[in-house]
Amino acid sequence: MVLHLYIDWLSQPCRAVAMLLMDNNIEHQVHEVSFMKKETQSAAYKEVNPAGKLPSIVDDDFHLGESHTIMRYLCTSRNLPDHYYPNDIKQRAKVDYWLDWHHLNLRHGSLCLIKANFFGPIKQLPQQTIDELRKEGDNVLKVALGFMDETLGKNNYIAGGNQISIADIALICEVTALPVAGASCEDYPNVQAWLKRTSTEIKSWDQVNMVFNQLLASRKK
Ligand SMILES: N[C@@H](CCC(=O)N[C@@H](CS)C(=O)NCC(=O)O)C(=O)O
């Protein structure tokens, strides 16, 4: 049976899962769910994912959320090329390290700034909340991007190795969201070089980012 993918193209974790599926020609049916319209909180969507979060997949009758978990599941269930999620225990642990690191570092910093600078005005958040989110986001992001830059000064790929892994895919989608957060990676040359190199290796890059790029373009006007 075809795999069902529930996504919002604006979401970083959703785009990461879509890239892995599309680059590996895994047949799937897309169901668009808008988190901005709070469709993630509907009773119908909670039947798919009780946590009310995107992305989710349904594979036969198996329901799964959390982008990193979904990507690991796809790598093992579809026997994807080893470089995405290596069989070697130590190389795999490195990929897991960066996936775990992602949530409380790069993503945490990026989300604080997205909440402050993108959703702050839309949701009319109190100025004190915006200021606190900005302070936390700026501090966390500076350390996170600095650490990535140092690592990418030594390795071409974030978890080492000589080909892209699912850790690169998760992190690169987060880095592309920085303009929405009012941030950038321009002070981090190794991150920029990695972004350029890795994005050209992801075949579905333009297709998956199309809707998100339209949002970025509309904000520049
Ligand atoms: N740790 C989760 C994060 C998922 C997440 O935060 N998804 C957001 C979109 S980027 C969402 O579904 N928000 C909807 C909501 O909270 O109602 C993952 O990697 O999948």
Automatic annotation (TrEMBL):
Residues 88-221 form the GST C-terminal domain. SUPFAM superfamilies: GST C-terminal domain-like, Thioredoxin-like. Coiled coil: none annotated. Residues 1-82 form the GST N-terminal domain. This is Glutathione S-transferase. It comes from Didymodactylos carnosus.
